[in-house]
Design a protein that fits this description.
By secondary structure, chain A is mainly α. Chain A contains seven helices and three strands. Chain A has one domain. The mean pLDDT of chain A is about 85. Chain B contains seven helices and six strands. Chain B has two domains: about 30 residues; about 160 residues, Butyryl-CoA Dehydrogenase, subunit A, domain 3 (Up-down Bundle). Classes of the chains: A mainly alpha, B alpha+beta.
Chain lengths: ~170, ~190
């Protein structure tokens, strides 16, 4: 890290907090709306998860919920928990190592950015059939993806492990 | 010496947990290849129904259509959406099959104690680990389409059983790639020097 450690940690934490709040907005507001021949259908991220809510596919609904919402939130929460005291130059919390280890281990299973690409493909597929309007949650979700990428690039995990050791 | 794979701290041989991050320490995962083969075979088996059964069930006023993974790509090409067709084809066909081949090659080369192209094999492993998760695109496309296109009688889209087996195939092969202990690639050298 180029800047002094507490400043760098503060930047990571502020990005993580922003992403956390935006993710909650992304789940609560309408994501996409579809209009065709007088019929109207609004979809949220939760509806996309519940698309697999039929018998054999229910485990998939749970998996999709984890991949696009729950795991990104757990990673952000764990990071805030582990690094929070370091910003104020206090000793790490109990379990901070475990929390940071969890955030690192879950990294490949957090698929928010893949979901956004999937949404783009779906929009192209529907474009000919009906008019699709993009809702506020779509932009919030895109924001989460960009901020998470920035945050993950800033993290130097070796420095963080060193800082947590003290 | 044993280096912690999580935080990089180096320990003498025989220490079981990292003193810095409390992660488990192991010089080599001796059961790595068994786990790789088991998850890989599960992934390949799940990939078969993923291609045979329909991914999307589309109902409109006039017709009922079922499209498979490859069928969906062909449809996109007929609509002239070449870019998107290529994205879906790469994510759902090329990446999974390429990943099967790459993991089989890596596992076999370690079993045969090959010591050629070690750096290239490490790079191949990193690529497989990085790119594998992007196969999930098609599952998310199905989720969004089925949630969005629910217009009573005019048009509805529902997920097919292939979505479940495709997702399973991606998850299994991701675990297969993660179980591969890439440090095994270096061991062929040591065997020959001894």
């Amino acid at each position: 890290m180029m800047t002094s450690q507490p400043a760098a940690m503060a930047r990571i934490i502020s990005l993580a907090l922003t992403a956390f709040v935006m993710m909650i907005a992304a789940v609560s507001f309408p994501f996409l709306t579809l209009d065709a021949k007088g019929l109207h259908n609004a979809t949220s991220v939760v509806d996309a998860v519940l698309a697999f809510n039929e018998g054999y596919a229910i485990p998939l609904a749970v998996a999709v919920a984890f991949f696009i919402v729950v795991i990104p939130l757990i990673r952000l929460g764990a990071l805030i928990y582990a690094l929070g005291p370091l910003v104020r130059e206090q000793p790490p919390r109990a379990g901070a190592k475990r929390a940071f280890g969890l955030a690192e281990r879950l990294r490949p299973w957090s698929m928010a950015e893949i979901f956004i690409v999937g949404v783009t493909v779906a929009l192209v597929k529907v474009a000919g059939l009906a008019a699709v309007t993009v809702g506020p949650a779509f932009w919030a979700f895109a924001g989460v993806v960009i901020i998470t990428v920035l945050k993950d690039q800033m993290i130097c995990r070796y420095s963080i492990w060193e800082a947590l050791e003290q | 010496m044993v280096a912690c794979q999580r935080c990089g701290q180096v320990h003498p041989q025989g220490v079981r947990y990292c003193k810095r991050c409390d992660g488990p320490l192991q010089s080599r995962d001796t059961e790595s290849l068994q786990k790789v083969w088991a998850w890989l075979i599960a992934g390949m088996i799940a990939y078969i129904p993923a291609n045979l059964y329909p991914m999307l069930l589309t109902n409109t006023l006039v017709e009922h259509t079922e499209s498979t993974i490859v069928g969906g790509v062909v449809d996109l090409m007929h609509h002239g959406s070449w870019g998107i067709a290529i994205i879906v084809f790469v994510a759902s066909v090329m990446i999974p099959i390429g990943k099967f081949i790459a993991v089989i090659y890596l596992a076999l080369s370690v079993q045969r104690r090959s010591n050629s192209q070690q750096h290239e094999r490490h790079k191949a492993y990193e690529l497989v680990e990085f790119i594998g998760r992007w196969s999930m695109i098609d599952v998310f496309v199905v989720a969004i389409l089925s949630a969005l296109v629910q217009l009573d009688t005019i048009a509805t889209i529902n997920p097919g059983i292939a979505a479940v087996s495709f997702a399973l195939s991606v998850i299994f092969t991701m675990i297969a790639a993660q179980s591969f202990d890439s440090r095994l690639i270096w061991d062929a050298d040591r065997m020959q020097n001894e």
